[in-house]
Design goal:
Layout (H helix, E strand, L loop, with lengths): L3 H12 L4 E6 L2 H14 L3 E5 L4 E2 L1 H10 L3 E5 L3 E2 L1 H7 L3 E5 L10 E4 L10 H9 L3 H10 L7 H7 L1 H4 L5 H6 L2 H11 L5 H11 L6 H4 L4 H24 L7 E7 L6 H11 L4 E8 L2 E7 L5 H8 L5 E5 L3 E7 L3 H11 L2
Parallel strand pairs: 1-2, 1-4, 3-5, 4-6, 6-7, 8-9
Antiparallel strand pairs: 9-10, 10-12, 11-12
C-alpha cells in the first residue's frame, strides 16, 4: 500500500491538473482505478489498454493529440521508456506488477513497499477516499480482500450476503456479480467499451446496476447480460475439459476475450489444478493461466524458454501469448515446471 507521503504526492498531482489522460488495464482492477481517479477530479479522458498491458510509443500519440497536461498510468505492467520520452508531460505510474526501472517518471509500486502485491484500485482509494464500492470491486477482481471490507460489509450487508472468503465473495454474492459486470463491460468493440466506461463514471450507487433502477444502470446490465450469454456457453464446455494436473481449454472467438473470467471461475471450481485458458486468434493462443498452489511467475517464465511467445503477471495469475505451433511445447514445459 501507499505511505502517507505517497498518498499526498499523488493527490497533489490529481489536484493540480486540468486535462489529464488515464491509461488503465482492461480488467476490474484497472477500470476501478480509473473510475476512482476520474470521479474525484471530474476531468480528463480514460483510455483502456487492451490485449498486451504495455504502453508503447504508439500511445504517446494519443496523449499528445489530446494535449494532456498530465498522464496517469494505472495497473499497466510495462511502460516503455520511449513512451515517457515522447509525451513531454509528467507521468505518474501506479502499479503492482514486478518492479522495473524507468527514468523521468513518478513511479509508485506496492511491491517496492515490503514487496506487497496490493491492487492498484486499493491504492487509488487511499488517495481519493471515496467510492468504496468501486474500490472493493477492483480489489476483489484481483482476488484481494481490502482492509476496509469488514466496515463496508456492516454498512452494505445486501451486497455481501453470507460470503466471507474471497471465492464466496466473487462467485456467491452481489458484489461479486459487480466484478463480472465491470469485466464484461470492457468486452467488445472500442466504441462499446468507451460507452460503458462513460456511463460508469456517472453511476451513483451499485443498486443502479444490480436492480436496474436508472437508464444508466439498465444499459450497463444489458451489456453484461449480452456478454454473459457467450460466457455461460463457453463455461459449460470448459467444465467438460479433461481434469489432469493442468486443465487446458482453448476456443476460437474473434470479438470477445473471456479467458481471464473463465480461468478465474475454473480456479474456483478446481482449486488444486493449474488452469490454462487459451483463445485462438491471429495464429496464436492468448492465454490466462491460474493456480492457487504454484508460483506461476517463475513457472511461466521458464516454460516460455525455447517457445515463440511472451507472458508474465502475478504469482497466481499470469497471461501469455504463444504461437499456435508452439502451444503444445509450452504445455509440456509448464507441466515440467509444476511437478
Amino acid at each position: 500500500m501507499l505511505t502517507e507521503k505517497q498518498i499526498k504526492q499523488i493527490r497533489d498531482e490529481l489536484d493540480n491538473c486540468k486535462r489529464p489522460i488515464f491509461f488503465f488495464h482492461d480488467d476490474p482492477d484497472g477500470l476501478a482505478s480509473f473510475l476512482l481517479f476520474y470521479r474525484y477530479i471530474k476531468e480528463g479522458r480514460g483510455t483502456v489498454v487492451k490485449a498486451r498491458p504495455v504502453l508503447t510509443e504508439m500511445f504517446a500519440e494519443k496523449a499528445n493529440n489530446y494535449e494532456a497536461d498530465k498522464i496517469f498510468v494505472l495497473d499497466i505492467a510495462n511502460v516503455e521508456q520511449k513512451f515517457i520520452d515522447t509525451v513531454k508531460v509528467p507521468v505518474i505510474w501506479i502499479d503492482h506488477h514486478t518492479p522495473v526501472e524507468r527514468e523521468k517518471v513518478k513511479y509508485y509500486n506496492s511491491r517496492l513497499n515490503k514487496n506487497s502485491n496490493i491492487p492498484v484500485s486499493y491504492m487509488c482509494h487511499q488517495v481519493v477516499k471515496q467510492d468504496e464500492w468501486i474500490a472493493l470491486v477492483g480489489c476483489l477482481g484481483d482476488w484481494y480482500i481490502p482492509s476496509f471490507f469488514k466496515e463496508f460489509a456492516k454498512k452494505n450487508p445486501e451486497l455481501i450476503g453470507k460470503a466471507k472468503k474471497i471465492e464466496e465473495l466473487l462467485f456467491k454474492s452481489p458484489i461479486g456479480k459487480l466484478v463480472k459486470i465491470f469485466s464484461f463491460n470492457l468486452k467488445g468493440t472500442t466504441t462499446d467499451t468507451r460507452t460503458s466506461i462513460k456511463i460508469l463514471t456517472r453511476i451513483e450507487n451499485p443498486e443502479e446496476i444490480l436492480k436496474q433502477t436508472t437508464p444508466k444502470g439498465k444499459k450497463i446490465y444489458k451489456k453484461y447480460e449480452h456478454v454473459n450469454q457467450a460466457y455461460e456457453e463457453l463455461l459449460k464446455k470448459a467444465l467438460k475439459a479433461k481434469k489432469d494436473k493442468i486443465i487446458v481449454f482453448t476456443y476460437s472467438e474473434d470479438k470477445l476475450s473471456l479467458t481471464k473470467d473463465l480461468a478465474n471461475e475454473l480456479m474456483y471450481q478446481f482449486p488444486d489444478k493449474v488452469i490454462v485458458l487459451g483463445r485462438e486468434k491471429s495464429g496464436e493462443y492468448r492465454c490466462s493461466i491460474r493456480s492457487n498452489k504454484i508460483n506461476l511467475t517463475k513457472a511461466v517464465e521458464k516454460a516460455l524458454i525455447g517457445v515463440d511467445g511472451y507472458g508474465g503477471g502475478h504469482e497466481n495469475a499470469c497471461g501469455a501469448a504463444i504461437k499456435k505451433e508452439d502451444f503444445k511445447q509450452f504445455l509440456k514445459n509448464l507441466e515440467k515446471e509444476i511437478k
